Design the sequence.
């Protein structure tokens, strides 16, 4: 059937390869037609990505409906959440992000819960420092020493304790840190390039089929 | 690593300090930290502030823009990041606007749109500048590195319309901005690797210089790119923000926050030391018992 | 024809591509390169063994992203490969494996993997549905911290980035004396975990475990490129210090 | 306006208290409310962002006569086919465009910038420079060499290679320590911000 043809992976691989190789080719050679096409293609990708971000909202809405129908424990809270989401989206879409409604919800509601949730992790760092950050081998010793020196470099108190801390911290950042970071970046770049090439020529797609 | 608490119970010996620390509730740590931070926020002491080379370089970089030139400010802050570097972003915007540099705002994170608005509103002299002429704000663009790459040669097509719905061709400021090379520079603020998108897609292939404002978590990366001479200075976290405000001569609200930072850092270091001392002590005791 | 300043880039891309294709092709034909055994992989046995000795369960979690959400999903898929391996090991040693998951989409897959692993090891009763813990959204790390206090697992595997939750889970597990092997937000793991996989090690681990020609071939290909780049580095440094200042220009043709 | 500000401050403190109740007390309806607020406001923000972008960069140019944009808009709508099991495969077409372009960009930038820039910046002078600089430069070259060698997986880890790799690991530990030491500050920044907001709203600490 036609649907089965459309479903085949070859189409996806062809689209992938075309887009990827066109962008790559444009980078290495100057052909005016290709250049125009690639410019357009890049704008398309951005626009499609915008549609893709909206998926999260609908996924959330669907999950909420399913849970509420099943009367899962705590479903009234879910309904509260949906109402809040609808109100905030309404303000944002119809009155703009500059409107009072959206700004208020953003500044006072969203900002405080998000910060509070992420901030809750911080006491665990302190608890871990006392009970879990153990210098159990040379690796951990080096790690902790570098960590402590950098902390004293970052916090203004370091310089008050000893004027040498900023110097040492700067040296760690400039010499060992920079070169290891360069090495790791090279490795990441290599990994990404290899993975990307494999992906756009369809190896990963084909492998997923098996 | 045998469970110290269980070991204590099995042998029936009295609880040592290490055991007590081990079985302590995390909430005590929370209260301890919170009280320490709150105290430092309420009382007033002054700890001298160091001003790093990279911050000075950042200011020099801003000074190098000619009056009337246009720069791109990519505000990719999330809410949590803005708590940390929001002040530096506002100071940068204010300084550039007051120097007559025109700014095009955009965001690679959803939060950035509202945060840019909030930053602009908190500039006392913002009424002097005209929207659409001195600055213009574009919204959020999904697609990360694709957006930055698409901007290379087609600014109008990629950005489309600003947050108020005006198309690029109707915005006075955007009349001569068609490609990324029409920008004098880019400035990026955020808490992730977004600044490398600009380095990768603008600085290297098109020679558009840039600088960034980032959280300290990216200090290593920023230092590396700074050493690679692809960043013209950077502002790192709250220390950098306070230093920037100092250099630019703006009032800073970070004084007490930095005191709290210092105190919390010292506490963390002390905890690491105490924890490791207890660990070594426990290890020695176990060795002795085995003998 | 080719834009100046980008010839060397093209050469590198072609080399990467050529090596990858060649070694995948070789691996498909059965000539799989011998990957080194990584200490972290050996430690899997040790961790599970320790949990069995202590009579405690094992805990496993993958990255804190939803599948398909961002590019990190690759990590998550590899995390599932490794999960299958750990599940087999646990089942054959009669240890209970708890998997915590935050993505509702993949819950079914996780359950099936666990069930089949326990059935294959001849211990179908070892599996029950409660062994898959589902914590939606941001609650996962906090819920896990509480769960660790109650259940006290003997080993903890964190294969993937838990973002801000890393330190929460790692601390909770370390406190209960769990043997930890982790990959993810490395700085917070080094001092809390027994074994940490750094960057590419994780990919090598999944290749080592699954022996998939695609993964093994790609890693072998990448290895040769790395060695080549190191050679280029050494040669350039040597030439530069012998007084040939043009080396840096050659790298930028 | 003042009433809104007042209400905002009260809501802020209530939500902060609710969020912390999960940790300080236990999971309850209060923490559920905080969590649900987190999720739904984030989701609303995501939707507003998506709609804003589609309007800015799809609809407005389309109305101004750029008909070609109908193609990406159609592809974008196809992404929503994933909610219908039978047609779910259509979303793969759209994602293929996004991923294809994305990988195309990533491949060239990672080679040109990430690999080559870092490599050429590591080609350093060790002769004809002051002793301290020379020592630092030698250390940097060695560190880079050892770190890259650490990730060679197809050669047996014995002899000289093993030693080089061990040093690579040590260097990396210093690096991770530096990252850890830096990260602490931004994590604490959030924590201090939330405490400060709470105190501010209560009228303490300015």
Sequence:
């Amino acid at each position: 059937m036609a649907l089965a043809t459309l479903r085949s992976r070859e189409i996806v691989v062809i689209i992938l390869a075309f887009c990827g190789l066109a962008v790559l080719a444009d980078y290495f050679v100057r052909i005016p037609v290709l250049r125009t096409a690639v410019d357009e293609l890049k704008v398309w990708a951005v626009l499609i990505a915008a549609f893709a971000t909206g998926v999260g909202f609908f996924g959330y809405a669907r999950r909420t409906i399913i849970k509420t129908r099943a009367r899962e424990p705590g479903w009234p809270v879910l309904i509260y959440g949906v109402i809040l989401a609808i109100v905030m989206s309404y303000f944002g879409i119809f009155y703009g992000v500059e409107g009072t409604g959206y700004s208020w919800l953003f500044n006072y509601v969203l900002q405080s819960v998000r910060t509070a949730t992420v901030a809750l992790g911080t006491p665990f760092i302190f608890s871990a420092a006392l009970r879990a950050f153990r210098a159990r081998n040379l690796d951990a010793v080096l790690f902790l020493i570098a960590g402590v020196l950098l902390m004293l470099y970052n916090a203004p108190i370091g310089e008050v304790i000893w004027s040498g801390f900023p110097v040492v911290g700067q040296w760690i950042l400039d010499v060992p840190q920079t070169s290891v970071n360069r090495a790791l970046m090279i490795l990441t770049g290599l990994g990404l390039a290899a993975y990307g090439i494999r992906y756009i020529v369809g190896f990963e797609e084909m492998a997923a089929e098996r | 690593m045998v469970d110290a608490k269980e070991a204590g119970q099995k042998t029936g010996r009295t609880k040592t300090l290490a055991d007590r620390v081990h079985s302590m509730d995390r909430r005590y740590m929370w209260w301890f930290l919170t009280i320490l931070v709150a105290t430092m926020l309420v009382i007033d002491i002054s700890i001298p502030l160091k001003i790093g080379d990279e911050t000075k370089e950042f200011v020099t970089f801003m000074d190098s823009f000619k009056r009337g030139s246009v720069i791109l400010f990519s505000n990719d802050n999330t809410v949590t990041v803005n708590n940390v570097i929001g002040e530096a972003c506002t100071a940068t915007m204010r300084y550039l606007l007051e120097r007559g540099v025109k700014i095009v705002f955009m965001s690679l994170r959803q939060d950035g749109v509202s945060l840019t608005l909030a930053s602009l509103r908190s500039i006392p002299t913002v009424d002097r500048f005209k929207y659409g002429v001195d600055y213009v704000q574009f919204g959020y663009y999904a697609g990360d590195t694709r957006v930055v790459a698409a901007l290379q040669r087609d600014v109008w097509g990629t950005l489309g319309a600003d947050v108020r719905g005006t198309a690029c061709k109707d915005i006075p400021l955007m009349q001569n901005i068609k490609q990324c090379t029409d920008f004098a520079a880019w400035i990026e603020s955020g808490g992730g690797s977004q600044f490398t998108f600009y380095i990768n897609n603008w600085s290297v292939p098109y020679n558009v210089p840039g600088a960034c404002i980032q959280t300290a978590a990216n200090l290593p990366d920023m230092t590396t790119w700074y050493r690679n001479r692809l960043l013209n200075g950077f502002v790192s976290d709250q220390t950098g923000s306070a230093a920037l405000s100092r250099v630019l001569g703006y009032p800073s609200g970070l004084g007490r926050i930095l005191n709290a930072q210092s105190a919390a850092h010292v506490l963390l270091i002390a905890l690491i030391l105490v924890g490791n001392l207890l660990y070594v002590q426990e290890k020695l005791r176990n060795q002795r018992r085995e003998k | 024809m080719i834009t100046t300043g980008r010839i060397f880039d093209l050469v590198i891309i072609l080399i990467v591509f050529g090596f990858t294709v060649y070694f995948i092709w070789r691996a498909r034909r059965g000539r799989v390169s011998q990957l080194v055994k990584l200490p972290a992989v050996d430690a899997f046995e040790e961790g599970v063994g320790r949990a069995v000795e202590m009579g405690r369960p094992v805990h496993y979690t993958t990255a804190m992203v939803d599948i398909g959400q961002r590019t990190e999903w690759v990590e998550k898929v590899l995390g599932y490969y490794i999960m299958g391996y750990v599940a087999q090991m646990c089942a054959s040693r009669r240890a209970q494996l708890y998997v915590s998951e935050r993505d509702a989409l993949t819950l079914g897959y996780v359950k099936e993997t666990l069930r089949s692993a326990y059935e294959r090891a001849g211990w179908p009763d070892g599996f029950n549905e409660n062994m898959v813990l589902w914590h939606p959204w941001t609650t996962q790390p906090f819920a896990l911290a509480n769960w660790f206090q109650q259940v006290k697992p003997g080993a903890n595997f964190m294969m993937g980035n838990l973002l801000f939750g890393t330190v929460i889970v790692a601390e909770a597990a370390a406190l209960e004396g769990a043997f930890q092997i982790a990959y993810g937000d490395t700085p917070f793991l080094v001092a809390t975990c027994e074994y940490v996989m750094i960057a590419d090690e994780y990919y090598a681990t999944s290749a080592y475990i699954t022996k998939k020609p695609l993964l093994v071939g790609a890693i072998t290909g990448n290895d040769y490129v790395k060695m080549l780049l190191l050679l280029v580095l050494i040669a350039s440094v040597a030439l530069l210090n012998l007084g040939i200042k043009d080396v840096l220009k050659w790298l930028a043709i | 306006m003042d009433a809104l500000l007042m209400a905002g401050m009260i809501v802020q403190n209530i939500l902060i208290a609710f969020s912390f109740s999960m940790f300080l007390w236990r999971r309850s309806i209060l923490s559920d409310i905080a969590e649900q607020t987190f999720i739904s406001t984030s989701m609303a923000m995501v939707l507003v962002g998506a709609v804003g972008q589609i309007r800015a960069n799809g609809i407005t140019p389309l109305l101004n006569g750029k008909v070609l944009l109908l193609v990406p808009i159609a592809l974008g709508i196809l992404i929503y086919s994933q909610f219908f099991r039978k047609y779910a495969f259509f979303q793969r077409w759209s994602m293929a465009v996004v991923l294809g372009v994305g990988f195309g960009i990533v491949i060239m930038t990672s080679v040109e910038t990430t690999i080559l820039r870092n490599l050429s910046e590591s080609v350093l002078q060790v002769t004809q420079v002051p002793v301290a600089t020379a020592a630092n430069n030698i250390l940097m070259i060695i560190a880079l060499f050892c770190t890259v060698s650490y990730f060679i997986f197809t050669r047996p880890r014995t002899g000289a290679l093993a030693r080089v790799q061990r040093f690579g690991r040590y260097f990396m530990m210093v690096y991770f320590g530096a990252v850890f030491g830096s990260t602490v500050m931004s994590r604490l920044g959030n924590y201090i911000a939330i405490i400060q907001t709470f105190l501010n709203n209560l009228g303490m600490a300015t």
